Amino acid sequence: MVILIITCNSQIYGQEPGPIQTDRPDQTETPFTVPKNHFQMENGFTFEKAKNNTNTYYIPSILSKFGLNDHFEIGVITEFSSIKSDENYSGLTPVTLRFKENICSEKGLLPITSFIGYLSLPKLASEEFKASYFAPAFRFTMQHTLSEKFTFGYNLGAEWDGESAEPSFIYTVTTGYAITDKFGSYIELYGFAPQKSIADHRFDGGVNYLLRNNILIDVSGGIGLNENSRYSYISFGFSFRLKD
Questions:
Q1: Cis ω for the linkage preceding 111 (within 30 of 0)
Q2: In the predicted model, what is the mean pLDDT of residues 40-53?
Q3: CA angle 139–240–93, rounded 5-degree value
Q4: What are the two backbone dihedrals, phi and then psi, of residue 167, each rounded to the nearest 5 degrees?
């Protein structure tokens, strides 16, 4: 979401698509949708170290999505996880369906805004990762263009884990800076606030590089900010977009 800021609005008005816009590497989902009749795949490889000496590898996490029109996309998230602690186990986490709809374009102080809905399928997973119930989630994602170099974005939403009725509220706040036309960066604060548990606050940052108009690579990393958050993570990504 942090590259070539001055050209990204072309995706909203049905013109020739601008540079690829992705939901990774930051936790703030982009409000931009995949252009009509385009397929996009965002691949991430992540290592996460928790404070309880549990190491988790996401190898890979894949978001595949398709633009049905200039304002609406559908997608699916598939993720293979390997957890190493006192007991080691690996497998496919519950497959998640999602859609994104652009609600309004940026105008003055009004940010470009989109709504994203998710639904995790509890049994469409490896045995070790199956959940008890369907797990919905949603986000409103907003972004302001501050200048030709800077953007300011934020998400608000909630998610359920498939095991209890308790929601976990989500917030993200990020600032993106276009170092060059191809090289972008960001820093971000984000967190999760369960209804009845202690909040989990985190900080991360990263860079991405536009290899071609439809190909983007990225690297990012983050740390937990309080006792209830994970210790650290590092992630590498590769994303591409194709026209149907």
A1: no
A2: 92
A3: 55
A4: -80, 155
